[in-house]
Specification:
Blueprint: E1 2-3, H1 16-31, E2 36-38, H2 41-50, E3 58-60, E4 84-88, E5 110-114, H3 121-130, E6 137-141, H4 145-154, E7 157-160, H5 169-175, E8 181-184, H6 189-193, E9 198-200, H7 205-221, H8 225-232, H9 237-254
Parallel strand pairs: 1-2, 2-3, 4-5, 4-7, 5-6, 7-8, 8-9
Length: 255
């Protein structure tokens, strides 16, 4: 069994009764398995915390990520007319996209936010109004892979201030283009970004702005692209598949 996340237990607005039912059902599934794979050490820590009697079954195998190939001459449905920042994911509170308009203060960047829209979109737009950048916060909705690839390739930086993440696949996709990535320090993201990402220690607007400003300066002055590409190459489907095959062999031999 592979567990991708236990985000429900980390969200403050989760219903306590539903969490209890969720943990009971998950516990039954885990008990029925010979081995349990988690896609990050953070997820593994959750599993061991809530099901300590099952901890010997748990191992970690990271996801891989496809290296997206840009199509020549492709133009996205929305093409920014000036330097832009990019993020992608479900427009939910846990992704933290409402924190991003603050990073547009004092500069002329456009913020492109892609992904399935929810009612949280209004919170994001309210923050854009607060920081007087409503015309520079572009919410595209769901996009195709070609548009996504174009945004990764051409953005100034990728931003992902999520507070509940089992792995963080978009981070790897952006790093495959050598882009600077700005992440929250929470859940699994430090495992993915390693030492080459820039981290928001908290979500105070002024502190986030300082991390962003200093991070861009460091990236440009110290040529961090090569290090970022090396970090991304730690997460491939080939590596993941090899580790699953090793685990299957171990299970078969133990029988």
């Amino acid at each position: 069994m592979t567990i991708h996340d236990m985000n429900k237990v980390h969200l403050k607005y989760s219903n306590p009764h539903r969490i209890k039912v969720y943990l009971k059902n998950l516990g039954k599934l885990i008990s029925a398995c010979d081995r349990v794979v988690c896609i990050s050490n953070f997820v593994a820590k959750d599993v061991k915390h809530y099901f300590p009697d099952q901890k010997d079954k748990v191992s970690v195998i990271y996801n891989g990520a496809d290296k997206l190939i840009p199509k020549s001459h492709h133009i996205p449905k929305y093409k920014p007319n000036k330097p832009f920042l990019f993020t992608i994911g479900l427009l939910s509170a846990q992704k933290g996209f409402h924190l991003l308009p603050a990073l547009l203060e004092g500069n002329d960047y456009i913020m492109v936010i892609s992904g399935r829209e929810t009612s949280h979109k209004e919170v994001i737009l309210a923050e854009a109004i607060k920081y007087n950048c409503l015309d520079r916060v572009i919410i595209t909705g769901i996009i195709n892979d070609d548009d996504k690839t174009w945004y990764y390739e051409n953005c100034k930086a990728f931003l992902f201030p999520s507070i509940a993440e089992g792995f963080g696949l978009p981070v790897i996709e952006a790093m495959y283009f050598g882009k600077p990535v700005f992440l929250s320090k929470f859940t699994s993201l430090p495992e993915v970004g390693g030492k080459v990402a820039y981290y928001f220690d908290d979500f105070d607007a002024k502190k986030m702005q300082l991390v962003f400003k200093n991070g861009l300066q460091d990236y440009e002055l110290n040529n961090r692209k090569a290090d970022i590409l090396l970090q991304a190459q730690k997460f491939t489907w080939e590596i993941s598949a090899d580790k699953y095959l090793d685990l299957y062999d171990e299970c078969l031999n133990s029988k």
